[in-house]
Amino acid sequence: MNLRKIDKFQMDDSIRMALKEDITSEDISTNAIYKNYRMAEISLYSKEDGILAGLDVFKRVFELFELLDNSVEFTEYKKDGDKVLNKDLILKIRADVKTILSAERTALNYLQRMSGIATYTRKIVEALDDKNILLLDTRKTTPNMRIFEKYAVRVGGGYNHRYNLSDAIMLKDNHINAAGSITEAIKLAREYSPFIKKIEVEVEDLKGVEEAVAAGADIIMLDNMDIETTKKAIKIINKQAIIECSGNIDITNINRFKGLEIDYVSSGAITHSAKILDLSLKNLRYIDD
User: Fold this and answer.
1) Which uninterrupted H or E stretch holds 32?
2) 140 is known as an active-site residue
3) What pTM value is reported for the model?
4) 153 and 280 in contact (C-beta within 8 Å)?
5) Given 92, 140, 197, 198, the catalytic residue
6) 249-274 pLDDT, tens per residue?
7) According to DSSP H, which parts of 171-268 are helical?
């Protein structure tokens, strides 16, 4: 799997900001030691088992740092979506030694974070163990990292919920309270966007489920319901709306949804609770002229 063209178009600005965050004026440590241009090679290894995600982003960090002379070369041994084991060689980089040393931390931060999310996503999909239910992410992402983290979810076998607030109509408890009722909130949403967008409504009890069905919600999110209540809600909905379950769902409890007649399970834990995958750049050596 590779980043979509639109993702590649959008990611450069974020990477440039990350590089600026790490180097406000210069890399003092590297510039103090290396005065002249010199080509070197370094290898990227995995230090634990997991799913790889973000190689395009990792490489792009070095490319943007060395944009003027375009001398960075990569030899790839793995691709996004591959399972890597401890000590696996992932790729090799050839570039000016100053480029390698100055850009490596930013590049690793992206790749480790994205691979960690892909790894955790894969584990949650396996824990759910139901091909009829799709695992969704949420907007609980790191600021300015959403494009990368949602891509990592897809690599791990999950699916993306709405990308941002402009992407879909989703009426949560505070929207409903502001409107006065589920019925009124859906009515106002229909008037504002009569056919272009589906309307999703978050409900917390069976009374809310009944009202959402009667008001014509396209998607009903069952929020923080226990399994017995969820089963009753499924019968009330009776295939009249798409069903999503949500609320404090992670790898420890997702299997309880296995076999239920629901369409989606969404989990913020995929992005906000995934640990990084430990990766390392090692064995720097100079390339003879």
Assistant:
1) helix 28-33
2) yes
3) 0.94
4) no
5) 140
6) 999 999 999 999 999 999 999 999 99
7) 173-179, 182-192, 206-215, 227-237
